[in-house]
Design goal:
By secondary structure, the chain is an all-alpha fold. Helices cover 78% and strands 0% of the residues. The chain is built from 16 helices and no strands. Helix 2 packs across helix 9 and helix 14 packs antiparallel against helix 16.
Length: 358
């Protein structure tokens, strides 16, 4: 009787689990079907839909804008100068390398410097916020000042299509820009040295491009918030640059003051014993980007924090695989993605509640 009751309970639990799985499957299938119908109704699945027409228009406007052309020239000159310096030092680096298999030529092109100019990835960390801010500080208020915003929202289109088209167009332009620079770097190195690129290097460069896209997207979304909030483009630009300067200069000064209070200089290991101080240091968007890109482009970086003597003694001095490097920087990458999504969601909320007048 006991075994019979146990079998009945086991069979009942299996039936309930099957019912739960069927309910969840039906629920998610309804969500997917509803989303598909919504996308189809709004025309998001067709290239002739209003949102993709607006994306093409926004891309054309951004390409013809003076701020994009100026920053494009600056980034290109930076790339050429950094690549010239890196190629000039490749012979010295190759002769001093301990293991030729771990040299990773194309990663060296992005990180090598002779001291006269910073490396390419350091230049990009400085120019990426300016690129995002220049593309977003007048995204909405310029439309309102020119009188085109009221005309656009008066058309039979969804209101959020305007905001989505601006974000999609900037993301596409930035993706093409950084991908083109990476291909130029790989092609130049291949023509000059004749060394084929390895899959490990290609994956690291692709992940580096993705991080750069999210970093520019964060500053674009932040500047778009100020563009929605302030009617004057100059005020939005000053506010965006002020936030960038705060995280670039003053945030580090404030954190140094906090560290000097909680971690005296006499105790060298006080900072390592208070991990929340290290977390405060890494909350800045620029620091998140720097930690992520440095670890990806320098495979021998094994940790972003202090290591004990036991960890250093047991570590093998070999480059990490790309997936191990991604595991190290995943908190930084996820934090950068979360900041980008949060800023865009706030811009979306403010724009949908914005009162548009003539």
């Amino acid at each position: 009787m006991t075994s019979l009751g146990f079998n009945k309970r086991n069979m009942a639990s299996r039936i309930s689990i099957k019912n739960i799985l069927k309910t969840q499957t039906k629920f998610f299938s309804n969500i997917m079907e509803t989303s598909y119908i919504d996308f189809k109704t709004r025309g998001l699945l067709s290239w002739a839909s209003p949102i993709w027409v607006m994306v093409k228009k926004e891309m054309a406007d951004q390409i013809r804008s003076w701020q994009f052309l100026v920053l494009l020239i600056l980034i290109t000159l930076t790339f050429l100068g950094s690549m010239y310096i890196a190629l000039g030092k490749l012979n010295i680096l190759a002769s001093s390398a301990e293991d030729a298999d771990d040299f990773m030529l194309y990663l060296r092109l992005l990180t090598t410097t002779d001291g006269s100019l910073p490396s390419f990835h350091v230049f990009i960390s400085f120019l990426s916020p300016l690129l995002g801010i220049s593309l977003g500080f007048n995204a909405i208020n310029s439309e309102q000042q020119n009188g085109t915003l009221i005309r656009i929202v008066a058309q039979p289109i969804y209101r959020d299509n305007l905001l989505l088209s601006k974000f999609i167009s900037v993301t596409f332009l930035v993706s093409v820009l950084f991908t083109s620079l990476a291909l130029l770097m790989v092609g130049g190195g291949l023509l000059i040295t004749g060394v084929p690129i390895e899959s490990e290097e290609l994956l690291r460069i692709l992940f580096y491009i993705l991080i750069c896209i999210f970093y520019v997207g964060f500053w674009f979304s932040l500047s778009m918030i100020f563009s929605i909030r302030f009617p004057q483009a100059s005020t939005a630009a000053i506010a965006s640059i002020g936030v960038w300067l705060f995280f670039t200069i003053f945030y580090g000064i404030i954190m140094n003051v906090v560290v000097s209070v909680f971690a005296p200089k006499s105790n060298l290991f006080a900072l390592g014993q208070t991990p929340w101080l290290m977390d405060l240091f890494r909350m800045a968007p620029g620091q998140l980007y720097t930690d992520a890109t440095t670890t990806l482009l320098m495979p021998k970086v094994r940790s972003l924090g202090p290591m004990s003597m036991e960890q250093m003694a047991g570590a093998i001095p070999n480059p990490l695989p790309v997936w191990d490097s991604l595991m190290i920087v995943w908190p930084q990458v996820s934090g950068l993605i979360a900041l980008t999504i949060t800023c865009f969601a706030l811009a979306y909320y403010l724009f949908m509640r914005k009162e548009i007048k003539t």
